[in-house]
Write a structure and sequence with these properties.
The chain has 284 residues and is α+β, with helices and mostly antiparallel strands. The protein folds into two domains: 93 residues, no CATH class; 131 residues, no CATH class. Helix content is 37%, strand content 18%. The protein has eight helices and nine strands. The strands form two sheets. It has a seven-stranded antiparallel beta sheet. It has a two-stranded antiparallel sheet with strand order 1-2. A hairpin with an 8-residue loop joins strand 4 and strand 5. The longest helix has 20 residues. The radius of gyration is 20 Å and the shape is globular.
């Protein structure tokens, strides 16, 4: 019997391929771009949009257009960008010169690194904790022993990407599975569990899930969640976001959490507002 294929890696690759096939870049109008240090497909797409407060879905669409324009038909191809490589970007009316690699100017040097799409961060984490070729019996033990090898910045970025993912999902048109949760009273809900199923099939495989926890007045208290494309911990949620916007991860198997970052106030408020809408609709 051959080695079992990593199902989650397959799912990530399938999602990438689906979005790649859907992309429709204008192949007749394009401009060249020289890769500089720190570039990735997500950051290039965001820079190309040049749009304040661009939605993650807009950046993602541009990312796949760029991938399609350069025949990057797989995640592996998209991750092979090298400094000074030249790729093509979709043209716009304002494109007059070819961007040149080099150090960022003083006006942009303080801009924080953009968060990549969750499919990219999940793919990197899976390579660390669930490499291909492991038998089923070995996978859980390998994952348990290698979670500690996930770089802290990658773990944090995946959590922030997961929040972006959930913001888009909750604001979009999806067939979500929504259930009330009870922890104290058998009659009064203490939270709301929301599951995103693969391809929006209600009885399909769970793609990602979160649980909103409520205070005694039925208002947002905190939320625990998993992101799409990777399941780091088998028996607990991978992330928590508290009432102060602190992003946390499990510290040990006893339920203790440790803060790994803090969300920007505007993004945090946007996320909490959309969660509260679901709570008000399905519980209050």
């Amino acid at each position: 019997m051959g080695n079992l294929v990593d199902i989650k890696t397959q799912e990530t690759r399938s999602y990438y391929r689906m979005k790649y096939d859907e992309a429709r870049p204008d192949t007749d109008n394009k401009v060249s771009y020289t890769i500089k240090k720190g570039d990735n497909l997500w950051s290039i797409a965001k820079e190309k949009l040049n749009k304040r407060n661009a939605k993650n879905s807009e950046i993602q669409d541009m990312m796949y257009k760029i991938a399609k324009l350069n025949n990057m038909s797989s995640i592996e191809d998209a991750n092979k960008l090298g400094i000074n490589d030249v790729i093509y970007l979709p043209s716009s009316n304002t494109d007059e010169v070819t961007p040149v690699s080099g150090s960022p100017s003083s006006s942009t040097s303080n801009i924080s690194k953009p968060v990549r799409d969750v499919s990219e961060t999940a793919f990197e984490i899976n390579k660390i904790i669930e490499p291909e070729g492991l038998y089923f019996a070995s996978r859980s033990l390998y994952k348990y022993e290698n979670i500690k090898n996930i770089p802290p910045e990658l773990y944090k970025e995946n959590g922030l990407a997961g929040i972006n993912y959930w913001t888009d999902i909750l604001n979009g048109q999806h067939n979500l599975v929504i259930q009330k949760s009870y922890s104290i009273s058998p009659t009064t809900p203490s939270g709301l569990v929301i599951k995103k199923k693969e391809n929006d099939h209600i009885f399909g495989k769970t793609e990602a899930q979160l649980m909103v926890e409520l205070d005694e007045n039925g208002n947002f208290k905190d939320v625990v969640f998993d992101t799409s494309g990777v399941n780091i911990y088998e028996s607990k949620f991978d992330y928590e976001l508290d009432a102060n916007g602190n992003l946390k991860r499990p510290l040990n198997s006893y339920g203790e959490m440790v803060t790994i970052g803090k969300m920007k106030k505007e993004e945090y408020q946007q996320f909490v507002q959309v969660l509260q809408k679901y709570v008000d609709k399905h519980i209050k």
